[in-house]
Fold this sequence. Notes:
- By secondary structure, this protein is mainly beta.
- The protein has a domain at about 20-105 and about 180-250.
- The chain has four helices and 17 strands.
- β6 and β7 form a beta hairpin.
- The longest helix is centred in the first third of the chain and has 12 residues, at about 1-15.
- The chain is globular.
- The two termini are about 35 Å apart.
Amino acid sequence: MVIPVLMALTLVAQSPSATALTMSAPQKLLTLDKIKGEPTQIAWSPDATELYVATGARTRLGTFESPKHYVITIADQKLKSVDAAPQWATDYLAWKSNRFAPGDHAFTIQVSEGERTERAVSAPMGGDLAKGGGGGDSTGTTASDMVSAGLASQRQHVITLKLKGETVGELVDTQFLPGYTFSWAPKSFGPAIAYARPDGHLSVMDHDGGKKEVAGTKNALLPAWADSGSKIAFVQRDGKKFDVYVVDVK
């Protein structure tokens, strides 16, 4: 039992401090304007010369259908369609999107599901409606407004991913896709995770829970940490467009 414990301690000791990392400003690689559907997966090739991108058409139920496959060549920023995911992409996604960090099963994401109600407008805080009356309140809200608000309210299915108390993913009325909001660092780098917060900013967390935000990010999703540990790719939503960015990590 001594050897496994020592190995675990050594692994944790080698874990980088997120606050000590130096991350470059995100550099735009290309706009995914020639894809069908929206991105659902990203994977790095072992030599970091290519990126694999999977896409799907989102249905009204929040699931994805009609999958398509693409490969981006980093050097010339070219996107090409392929028939299926390359084997290197399948191998990469197996550790990138797992529930636990490569080589450290204790660094594990907890997944929970629940329901919540979203309203189109807020309920009145004062006036006749707040007291049970049928007239308008001081803000002009009427009974018909309340009926409309009730009709506009909707139940949402929410999947929440947490790690050390931090939300590292939130999927609302969307099919659960492993790695959609996070990516583990490669085993050689040490236990760490890159993740898109619910507010859309990209952050990095180390094994001890230390965190650092990647400046200049918004509406981020599908982070992907390269095998070398020196780069993080991610997709940034811009309206109906999707742009691929890369951040250098030191």
